[in-house]
Specification:
Elements lengths: L4 H6 L20 H11 L6 H14 L10 E4 L7 E6 L7 E5 L3 E5 L7 E3 L8 E6 L7 E5 L20 E4 L7 E2 L11 E6 L7 E5 L2 E5 L7 E5 L6 E7 L6 E6 L6 E5 L6 E4 L4 E8 L7 E7 L10 E7 L8 E6 L14 H4 L20 E4 L7 E4 L3 E4 L7 E2 L17 E6 L11 E5 L2 E5 L23 E2 L9 E6 L5 E6 L3 E6 L8 E4 L3 E6 L7 E5 L3 E5 L7 E2 L15 E3 L7 E4 L3 E4 L7 E2 L8 E6 L7 E5 L4 E4 L12 E3 L5 E8 L2 E10 L6 E4 L7 E2 L9 E6 L7 E5 L2 E5 L7 E2 L9 E8 L4 E7 L4 E5 L14
Antiparallel strand pairs: 1-56, 2-3, 3-4, 4-5, 6-7, 7-8, 8-9, 10-11, 11-12, 12-13, 14-15, 15-16, 16-17, 18-19, 19-20, 20-21, 22-23, 23-24, 24-25, 26-27, 27-28, 28-29, 30-31, 31-32, 32-33, 34-35, 35-36, 36-37, 38-39, 39-40, 40-41, 42-43, 43-44, 44-45, 46-47, 47-48, 48-49, 50-51, 51-52, 52-53, ...
Length: 785
Amino acid sequence: MRRLLPLLLALPLACAHTPDTLHSPPRPDQPSAAQRYYEMKHEGTADPQGAYAKAREQMRAQSKSHVLGTWQYLGPGNIGGRTRVLVIDHSDNNVMYAGAVSGGIFKTTNGAVSWTAIGDDLANLTVNSLAMHPTDPRILYAGTGEGFFREEQRGTALPLRGNGIYITRDAGATWTHLASTSTEDFHWVNDLVISRHDPRRIYAATRSGVWRSGDEGATWTRILPTTVKGGCLDLAARTDQPADYLFAACGTFEQATIHRTTNGDTWTAVHTEANMGRTTLAIAPSNPSIIYALSASNQSGAAFYQGLLAVFRSDQNGDPGSWTARVRNTDPNLVNRALLTNPLPATRTLCGQQNNQYVTMGWYCNTIAVDPTDPDKVWAAGVDLFRSDDGGRNWGVGSYWWANENHPNFVHADQHSIVFHPKYDGTTNKTMFVTNDGGVARTLDARANVAIGPGATCQTISGMQWESLNHNYGATQFYHGAIFPDGRRFMGGAQDNGTLIGSLETGPDRWVRPLGGDGTYSAIDHSDPSIVYAQTQVGTVYQSFDGGRVFNYVGNALTGDNFLFVTPMQIDPNDSRRVWIGGRHMWRTDNKGNSWIASSAILDGLVSAIGIAPGRSQRVVAGTNTGAIVRNDNATAGTPTTAWTTTKPRAGFVSWIAFDPQDNNIVYATYAGFGGQHLYKSTDGAITWAPLENDLPDIPLHSLAVDPTRPGRMYLGTDLGVFVSTNGGTNWEPENTGFAAVVTEAVIIGPGERGPAVYAFTHGRGAWKNELTPLPVAPRRRRPS
């Protein structure tokens, strides 16, 4: 790692990569841009949960499609998705539950040797908070809605909105929605706490304040109202007092304040200061009069905007006036200032480089926890993990997102929770768990040495050793996927997990990640599968000549255009030398990425979908984020001034363009968003369009695949899983997938083991495959006469 360090420091940074990607400029992930993209695809209603409820009711009334066989989980089980919360069964510590932001709830009963998705009957899979009953671990509450917003979000139709709180009384086998939480006040349930004095009493931190139920969630009373942006985001409870004694941190991009109640009823503001943003809280278990707060900065225009404001500590029960800043973003030690930033670029000058860069993430990843046996040992995390051994004054580095993933110091970036083992004693048990954008990880020694001093971020020198607990933890959030011609390997781009490659031979738990950042589209040369293309966000194109082990950046010519966060990219099915990508213009390469040509004038919107006619390379059709569909029957000769014919069947976001594989005059277009028609068909090569749907619910559609082996058979990827039509799109039925009603970004027909197969790349449950050719039936043996 030392010999790679100068090159690492000279490159733009991504949130995860392996050394093979050093030939290209890795990128940081962009959670705020990802939220904007998600929001763009889900416009059209102020009440998406109401639309989903109607859609589910309609789906229940429809017969389930059984035209496909059993879906096979492909993975990745070893590269998890964004995970906000983890709880451990206090009676059997091998039982744990994890909340995946768009994949629902996962459970392990064997100490994370393997995980199983549970709660697929949840009407909302956006699990953001979990709480376990203090005496009966079979009872858990799950809060939905990821309420950590980017700055400009203020509306109600925001990304990853939830649908209240669910309860299980049988350890996750079945879940029931608490009808009392169907209101707007519970669209984002940021934290949950169950009273140790009376487990019927539950506290919920939501966008509109702190709510209390005294009857296991049947009814609620708001006991701490707020109108501050983000609402109340974190709760911390003392367990040594005769009454419920809680702290709440409220506010993110607007002024944050810490509040306290000593009786579970009335609240007092105990601490705030100028520019105080999102704040997380931790009480010292061994001395509950000590409480810490990790605060992001709202100082607009400053280098540390959404980075560290300060770590505060009170030694007097959180009393007003007792909070002192242990470290601020003005600290002379650059490592101390990096708690809520990407630490590698923030400390370049310590490593012999120039120009520190502050990639601040405090609004998105921000968590703090205190060692259960030592009130002066405190963990804080944003992108990476840090520990202080002197009560928050000085900090050492405990993890390195940029290390090789096999290195013991590696932990995936963007931390969301820190959880100590229930039997942690600091000597015989020092186990600590973390959750992040890559799933779940663990250290068996949370007391090991962290890296301190000016060189702490210059090389992986921490004494901490970490291990991934992602074993069949299938919560990966794909945006797109592609299949190798042998039908045994596959690749896809995922949120904050870059480009991932897996195979049938290695199985679900051995996918590799050759390229970091936010992975988006992938494409594989059908004539030479050693040549593959991948993208990170905003149309950044890479190419590999060795099947995806090493990638090189090939998008220099594209830098002057404007692209969507997830930019469509397609290889010409008739000529693999040609690849198409789109932004304000349509772009093509005719020489496998050596050069790019702008092939259209400026279009109506940004390109959001591309289709190329089978057997006719000149015919290219694209959709945009304004609802426009553009076409050109001589696209391969296009120049920057070439006008493409434009139609607009409706306003909205065109999410997919698909040609009929047998007739290049038949083209389909899907629209995301709510309201209006979602599926259109053209029979004249995309000149005119007509809606094609009778019984589809009003939910976003993301992709469509036409079965090449069965006339009339089509597959749709939607916000609620896969739908199938057997009569050319006239009627649709929800497919009995086995991977829940999860957002399915890409449904693709590709090579399988026995012929064509349909693949589903989901945003929260990984990748799946279904063979379209059934296994041959063995001939019956004749009985001897």
